[in-house]
Write a sequence for this structure.
């Protein structure tokens, strides 16, 4: 049941901790964006079928978790999946774990891929939520980001998803590229609001190591200015807030009832299964990841081997600290517990409280200045040095 | 078999820094077969990591050589390689007390330099026979004849008495060995006199306890003896005695005139004191050997453990290090900004740097050092006199009658062409010319009365740059003089930070305050709030800078669910912040506390 609860309400967040979900990674892209450091594969879309087969195989061999509240199909570019593939994946998940009634089934999509018929197909297969990689509606920014769509495709994609009846439509935006201006960011936000999505993610452009973008910056191209990004973040919170989108996490804004259940779970420390290359999961007190290369992944699955590349145990005190570490990104704040108490009692915690960066609101630890979340997170990690 | 004293020669190699003492020691080790060719390496006696990294000698090092001279007799040569840097001249005087002779080495391209003179005087005062030697005669720029004349002029000997060697090629080293035997007197001690042995150095070995370097003056010390330490009034059994060849080699006895090491197994550091005299328990009434004067520290700096819990470990480390560096002195100090630590006295800036590094490396400590200061004398309104070694302790001007600063007599040797620039520099440094004296027509020795604070920090670098590297200098304490001094305080976010305060001459205070505030603005990273940096004299603000606030410290995503990676990244960043010290709510990098050293008050 879709509720109309505010996305930043404590009840919604606390509930998310107990829900199970699954992440499925589709690495293929028509072209890899120069700023991207996700596990992606640029020019081998012909292996899609073999890959989907492998993912279905990986799911089939997994230990059952519990009926899934949410499934997130991320990428790469999942909107390159042919009709029928999503259904196969969901069927395998349903068979292995079960899927709750009224689940959240999200797929990331590139605007230029989205056609009315394709959308209808995905909907038929079980899709309930689409997250469009819009990034911007400013042609200059889109060009600088190396995107393959223009402002027109954005409008068409969002409108057609709406019209097809996708229950929840989300838009990803990237801000703070040096070619962006305050006015162009305002225009992007206004134009996106105009399209009436249910959810908007606003990500500050990050220069990730090893990407072409980071090479360009090293060679002298201007890097994003964090001070400017801070101002743009505030601009977004304001404009989206006025349009009825409530910021419920550092980079996420939603209308009531439209928060991303899968993501909230991850921030709440919930368990999730993970499939596909480079996918990360969290189950039974263990965080694990799959191999990142397509060949290694396919070879291992087809040889009947595990695609796991590494894992670490996160239990007890460490799990509590981690729950605080991820939870502080969320506007609802983290409900009390040993880690919260220890942090508020620590030298770092007291200093941050004194500066007004964190506070206690109805028994919950809240980061009052979300732009300093990493500063708080660093100090939260200091708790790991305490035995408990 | 004990060596008869007539066959023993004890000598130190002394010189200005870098004139080639350690390299010459290499050649002597080689010629006498103490080290095989395979084990030879450059400056073999510089054994500390710090010495090898910096290419200078810090610790005097003794070694015993066996030499068959041209008279076909076997001699024992006890050589002590000494440091040349002015900060370590205390090592030189201690070494000289264990010797009858000194090789005074002079670089044949550079000639007599300030520490050549200073060390020559030390040797003369100690009554040693000086063997003058010119080194580096292989260098194209060497001027052996002129330099020999210069050196002879100073020592009052004949230019022909000066031995010319190259420690690089080995030329002349054979002649030097012969001259050591013929020129240096044999030790005079008698074997049947009561034992008197001088402890001239020591160090702490984690397994064997305190290891002493000893020179037997009279009598002899044997394996199995009980040693009585006169000053500390302790008895300890001799667990091992031996000589360094340079490998530690146990012997059954050290006779008169011999040097070696002594291990008693004692681990209590305070039971051993460098300069003490050792005898046998049945002779506790012997006349103690002269020992050493406590060296007078020139500069003082606060040393604080980054982690307050390490305070006791720091104290222990200082105590252990003092065994190996008798010039160290300290007293506890507390700072509002830095917590509990020690105000440590040093012989100069290099000494300060070396001690800090040794404490960090050898005792695994992480330290914050504050800007060094000299010791001021203050007469309070009630007439009592106090010494102020830390700017934070300076009483208000209303509470004192008189404030005076330490002066030194500085000797500068420079090529005559740079006399003008040197005089100009000395004037800026409040120096008062005392004398001018031509060593040769081309080289001048200038002496000045100058405040210690003006020459002990950045002076030498500036002197060097004004004389294209040719000038050298040395100084001796020269009393106290009243001066118009003020304390410049630094405020961070409105609160004074005691560890940043400095005492300076009133004429320099504004320039200093401004440049210190600027330096700190560069060094202090942006924080979550704006940080005001102010320099003040009393309540008057003389400079102001601000460090703008960070606006954003958050990453957009959780790396597509890769929480582990994000955790590691932030943990690494946090680790980096540990090198910062919290001062109130402001994070200050450790090297900011010595920023004052890099403040250019000259231009
Ligand atoms: N050409 C030449 N170089 C020499 C000679 N003797 C020493 N050197 C070089 O001079 C430099 C300094 O030599 P050291 O032996 O370390 O000098 P030192 O007097 O022991 O220096 P401190 O202990 O720091 O005072 C080194 O680079 C040596 O290689 C020589 O006879 N000829
Ligand atoms: C997995 S990506 C979606 C992939 C999809 N093919 C697309 O590009 O639209 C999820 C979102 O992360 C954001 N993102 C990816 N790399 C980023 C970066 N370097 N800096 C900021 N945001 C980034 C983008 O907004 C992107 O839509
Ligand atoms: Mg040396």
């Amino acid at each position: 049941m879709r509720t109309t609860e505010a996305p930043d309400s404590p009840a919604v967040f606390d509930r998310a901790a107990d829900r199970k979900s699954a992440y499925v990674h589709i690495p293929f892209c028509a072209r890899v964006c120069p700023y991207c450091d996700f596990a992606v594969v640029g020019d081998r879309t012909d292996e899609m079928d073999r890959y989907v087969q492998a993912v279905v195989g990986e799911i089939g061999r997994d230990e059952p978790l519990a009926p899934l509240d949410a499934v997130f199909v991320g990428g790469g570019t999942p909107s390159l999946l042919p009709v029928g593939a999503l259904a196969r994946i969901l069927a395998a998940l349903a068979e292995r774990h079960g899927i709750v009634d009224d689940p959240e089934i999200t797929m990331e999509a590139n605007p230029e891929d989205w056609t009315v018929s394709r959308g209808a197909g995905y909907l038929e297969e079980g899709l309930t939520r689409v997250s469009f990689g819009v990034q911007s509606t400013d042609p200059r920014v889109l060009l600088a980001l190396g995107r393959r769509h223009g402002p027109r495709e954005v409008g068409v994609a969002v409108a057609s998803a709406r019209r097809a009846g996708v229950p929840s439509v989300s838009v990803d935006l990237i801000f703070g590229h040096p070619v962006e201006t305050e006015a162009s960011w305002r225009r992007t936000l206004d134009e996106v609001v105009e399209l009436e999505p249910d959810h908007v993610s606003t990500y500050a452009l990050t220069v990730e190591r090893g990407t072409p973008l980071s090479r360009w910056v090293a060679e002298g191209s201007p890097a994003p200015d964090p001070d400017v990004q801070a101002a743009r973040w505030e601009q977004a919170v304001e404009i989206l807030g006025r349009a009825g989108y409530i910021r419920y996490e550092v980079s996420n804004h939603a209308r009531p009832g439209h928060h991303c259940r899968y993501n909230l779970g991850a921030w709440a420390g919930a368990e999730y299964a993970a499939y596909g290359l480079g996918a990360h999961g969290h189950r039974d007190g263990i965080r694990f990841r799959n191999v990142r290369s397509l060949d290694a992944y396919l070879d291992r699955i087809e040889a009947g081997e595990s695609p796991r590349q590494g894992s670490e145990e996160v239990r007890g005190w460490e799990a509590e600290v981690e729950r605080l570490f991820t939870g502080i990104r969320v506007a609802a704040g983290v409900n009390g517990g040993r880690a919260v108490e220890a942090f508020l009692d620590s030298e770092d915690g007291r200093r941050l409280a004194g500066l007004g960066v964190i506070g206690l609101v109805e028994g919950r630890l809240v980061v009052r200045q979300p732009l300093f979340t990493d500063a708080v997170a660093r100090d939260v990690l200091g708790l790991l040095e305490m035995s408990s | 078999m004990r060596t008869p004293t007539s066959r023993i020669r004890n000598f130190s190699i002394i010189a200005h820094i870098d004139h080639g003492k350690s390299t010459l020691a290499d050649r002597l080790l080689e010629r006498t077969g103490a080290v095989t060719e395979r084990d030879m390496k450059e400056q073999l006696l510089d054994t500390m990591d710090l010495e090898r990294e910096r290419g200078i000698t810090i610790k005097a090092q003794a070694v015993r050589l066996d030499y068959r001279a041209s008279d076909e007799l076997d001699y024992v040569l006890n050589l002590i390689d000494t440091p040349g840097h002015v900060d370590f001249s205390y090592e030189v005087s201690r070494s000289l007390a264990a010797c009858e002779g000194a090789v005074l080495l002079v670089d044949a391209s550079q000639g007599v330099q300030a520490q050549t003179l200073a060390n020559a005087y030390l040797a003369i005062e100690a009554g040693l026979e000086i063997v003058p030697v010119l080194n580096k005669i292989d260098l194209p720029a060497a001027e052996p004849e002129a330099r020999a004349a210069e050196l002879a002029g100073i020592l009052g000997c004949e230019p022909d008495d000066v031995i010319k060697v190259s420690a690089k090629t080995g030329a002349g080293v054979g002649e030097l060995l012969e001259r050591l035997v013929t020129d240096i007197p044999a030790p005079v001690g008698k074997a049947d006199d009561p034992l008197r042995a001088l402890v001239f150095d020591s160090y702490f070995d984690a397994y064997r306890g305190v290891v002493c370097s000893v020179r037997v003056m009279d009598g002899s010390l044997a394996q199995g003896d009980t040693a009585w330490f006169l000053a500390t009034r302790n008895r300890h059994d001799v667990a091992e005695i031996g000589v360094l060849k340079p490998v530690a080699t146990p012997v059954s006895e050290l006779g008169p005139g011999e040097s070696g090491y002594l291990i008693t197994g004692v681990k209590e550091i305070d039971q051993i004191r460098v300069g003490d005299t050792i005898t046998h328990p049945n002779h506790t009434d012997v006349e103690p050997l002269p020992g050493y004067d406590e060296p007078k520290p020139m500069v003082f700096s606060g040393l604080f453990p980054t982690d307050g819990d390490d305070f006791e470990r720091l104290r222990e480390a200082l105590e252990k290090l003092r065994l190996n560096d008798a010039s160290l002195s300290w007293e506890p100090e507390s700072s509002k900004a830095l917590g509990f630590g020690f105000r440590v006295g040093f012989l100069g800036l290099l000494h300060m740097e070396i001690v800090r590094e040794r404490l960090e490396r050898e005792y695994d400590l992480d330290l914050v050092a504050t800007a060094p200061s000299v010791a001021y004398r203050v007469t309070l309104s009630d007439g009592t006199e106090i010494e102020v070694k830390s700017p934070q302790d300076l009483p208000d001007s209303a509470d004192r009658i008189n404030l005076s600063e330490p002066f030194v007599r500085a000797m500068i040797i420079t090529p005559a062409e740079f006399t003008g620039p040197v005089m100009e520099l000395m004037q800026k440094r409040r120096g008062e010319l005392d004398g001018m004296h031509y060593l040769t027509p081309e080289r001048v020795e200038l002496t000045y009365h100058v405040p210690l604070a003006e020459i002990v920090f950045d002076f030498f670098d500036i002197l060097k740059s004004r004389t294209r590297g040719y000038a050298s200098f040395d100084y001796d304490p020269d009393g106290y003089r009243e001066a118009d001094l003020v304390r410049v305080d630094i405020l961070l976010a409105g609160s004074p930070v005691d560890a940043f305060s400095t005492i300076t001459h009133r004429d320099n205070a504004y320039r200093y305050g401004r440049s210190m505030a600027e330096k700190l603005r560069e060094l202090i990273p942006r924080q979550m709030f704006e940080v005001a940096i102010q320099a003040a004299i009393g309540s008057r603000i003389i400079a102001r800078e601000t460090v703008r606030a960070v606006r954003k410290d958050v990453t957009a995503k959780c790396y597509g669910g890769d929480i582990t990676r994000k955790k590691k990244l932030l943990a690494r960043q946090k680790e980096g912040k540990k090198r910062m010290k919290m001062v109130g709510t402001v994070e200050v990098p450790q090297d900011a506390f010595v920023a004052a050293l890099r403040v250019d008050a000259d231009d």
